[in-house]
Amino acid sequence: MAVDAQPNDTGEAVGVETHCYIDAERGADDQSADGSDIRPFRTLAYAYIQNIDTPIKRYLVGAPNDIPESPAQPVWKEPTKTAVKKAQGILNKHKEKLEKQRAIEEEQQKQRLETLQQAKSIIVKEDSSLPIAVKITIGNKNVELGSGEKKGTRVKVCGRIHRLRVQKHATFITLVDGYGQLQCVLAAGNLTKSYDALLFAQGTSLAMYGETRTVPEGHNAPDGRELWVDYYKVIGHAPSDRDALTNRVSASQNQWDAIMLDNRHLVLRGNTASSVMKVRASVELAFVQAFDKMSFTKVSPPALVQGQVEGGATLFKVPYYHEHAYLTQSSQLYLETVLPSLGNVFCIEKSFRAEKSLTRRHLAEFTHLEAELDFIEFPDLLDHLEEIICTVVDTILADKEISGFIYALNPSFQKPSRPFLRMRYSDAIDWLNAQDPPILNEHDKLHVFGDDVAEAAERKIADTLNRPILLTHFPADLKAFYMKKDPDDSRLTESVDLLLPGVGEIVGASMRIESYEELLEAYARNDLPPEDYYWYTDQRKYGTSPHGGYGLGLERFIAWLAGQHTVRTCCLYPRFMGRCKP
Question: Is-contact 510 496, C-beta < 8 A?
Fold first, then answer.
């Protein structure tokens, strides 16, 4: 709608000339339209309904333009009297429907308020003759369950309502506390008729008291147990009206939609998001345990740096007193500096990339698992990558709870088989060109030596061959300044990307330049001031060694494990171009 209004001294709009546009060809009667000439509605009746409470002066209907030079531009005309009469009739029926619905809602609200008022007289008290309740978490399964005449342990459990099902004979509540789920049964009576009970809603936090029992045969509940409630306290109510949790977020919406990301703090309460976060925690722990068994030392490099690692275009510049500084792109250079004293090292830290990318694989802030290995050759690096990935996956799948989350999220997940396929960059180029039809480069031409293997092409290789691939020996022009050249072909580097089916690249690795003179030449080729990297260059000056390392994007690894469409759902609060809230 086009609006031209100026406020008077009282703040009221005067001289309003509001237009609403309708176009049967280009318009839409849904949320994608707003009634402007750019996004018109499809029908006049829908436009009337959308502006039921808005003073519209003119409705303009699009007619085909006969001018050849601009056939897509409609001619805006006043609607016909017949069209207006028809639309007005539909609007009147809509108003009648709204009035009836409003009357029904008012009566329901009146009855609800009366019921709530009556419920205030119902008092729920704890029976002092019952055994003292043992406080447990939902995850505590070491309590005796009752069955038949046998009594179970009386417990106190705190949690939030995850699901609520009200029936004539009982109310069933699924309680969650971050450690599991517990079905709670409130038999019909005062427990279900009290004021607090009538206000139960998803998210309400409660302290539940009762006997733990085995679920009757023929019925199902989490862990085959349930709590027969004899008393409860409301710790914190959640709204059950228009602001109810289920009206703010929905399990049927994509978690990466803008509205869901705005409400990420509520989405994280859902089964899917919480399961992914638990998988993530397990992944980090599994990596730490694997590195510990391999005698790697964990270090914590700085996040504020003054030199680039992966290219200046992807640096976030930040004020730092009277100097320039950047948020780190990678901790690799710092890891290399402690190889002489600590041996093989690793870190799990945040990295930041300012590239203006909105793909499902990129974040502006991501968790970077990086490692450096001393006194190795290139084949050793490849063997290590295969070993660390398989060890971590085996560790995670050995945990029944976490593997349960993984297979619930990603039913078709298959752990990688060894050995990983090893493919050179040149062979990948030939493979892409040999497909029918060929997989073209970013310029819609056949791949040639020197082309970057784009994200889509990487995924195509991994998905088609359906196995992990160690893609090696990339051209030096495509890689970072610090990567070691292939001794047999100076055009290439001793580099490798690990590709996994469904997600593409998750690891970038290489041997590092170990020659002092070669590193100085690399600075010059990349226009990097050597004085800014004196501390890095000194590693080659004071007893150099053959070494290599890698960086793994934790969110990409989790997306592969948990079958997530995007890395945005694999971290608590994703940060990418245009998104820095909540």
Answer: yes
Domain 134-236 in CATH: superfamily? Nucleic acid-binding proteins (2.40.50.140)
426 in Cβ contact with 473 (< 8 Å): yes
Q: Which two tokens stand for residue 319?
A: 């004020």
Pairing of strands 323-327, 316-320: antiparallel
| Angle 411-413-417 from CA coordinates, rounded to 5° | 155
Q: Name the burial class of residue 425, with classes exposed (0-12), middle (13-18) and buried (19+) by CB atoms within 10 angstroms of its CB.
A: buried
Q: Which tokens belong to 23? A: 């176009």
Distance (Å, whole) CA 210 – CA 485? 69
Tokens of 3: 């609006």
Confidence of residue 388 (pLDDT cuts 50, 70, 90): very high
- Residue spans of the domains in the chain: they are 6-91, 134-236, 271-569
| 252-271: pLDDT as tens digits | 788 888 889 999 999 999 99
Helix spans in 159-270 (H): 190-193, 195-198, 245-248, 258-262, 264-267
Say if residue 12's pLDDT is above 60.
Answer: no
What are the pLDDT digits (tens) for 519-539? Answer: 999 999 999 999 999 999 999
DSSP 306: S
Query: For the chain, what is the largest distance between any 2 Cα atoms, rounded to a whole number of angstroms?
Result: 91
CATH topology of domain 6-91: so0334 like fold (3.30.1910)
CA distance 279 to 268: 13
Write the pLDDT tens digit of every residue in 87-132: 999 999 999 999 999 999 888 888 888 888 888 999 899 999 999 9
Under 8 Å CB-to-CB from 21, ≥6 apart: which residues? 1, 2, 27, 35, 36, 37, 40, 41, 59, 60, 61, 62, 76
Compute CA 324 distance to the chain's CA centroid, rounded to the nearest angstrom.
32
Residue type, position 219, single letter? H
Pairing of strands 345-352, 297-298: parallel
Contact call for residues 249 and 263 (beta carbons, < 8 A): yes
Coil, strand or helix at 313: helix
Collapse the DSSP code of 109 into the 3-class scheme (helix H, G, I; strand E, B; otherwise coil) and give the result: helix
Higher pLDDT residue, 409 or 307?
409
Confirm if 210 and 230 have CB atoms less than 8 A apart.
yes
CA–CA dist 29, 22 (Å, integer): 10
The beta strands (E) that lie in 427-572 are given as 469-472, 485-486, 489-493, 495-500, 504-511, 547-553
Q: Which CATH number fits domain 271-569: 2.40.50.140, 3.50.50.60, 3.30.930.10, 3.40.50.150?
A: 3.30.930.10
Nearest to 58 by CA among 17, 6, 113: 17
- Asked if 422 and 467 count as a contact pair (C-beta separation under 8 A), the reply is no
E-assigned strands of 439-488?
469-472, 485-486
What lies within 8 Å, CB to CB, of 516 at 6+ separation is 537, 540, 541, 544
Separation CA 119–CA 105 (nearest Å):
21
Evaluate if residue 137 carries a pLDDT over 90: yes
Q: Judging by DSSP bridges, how do beta strands 547-553 and 365-374 pair with one another? A: antiparallel
pTM for the model stands at 0.81
CB 335 within 8 A of CB 299: yes
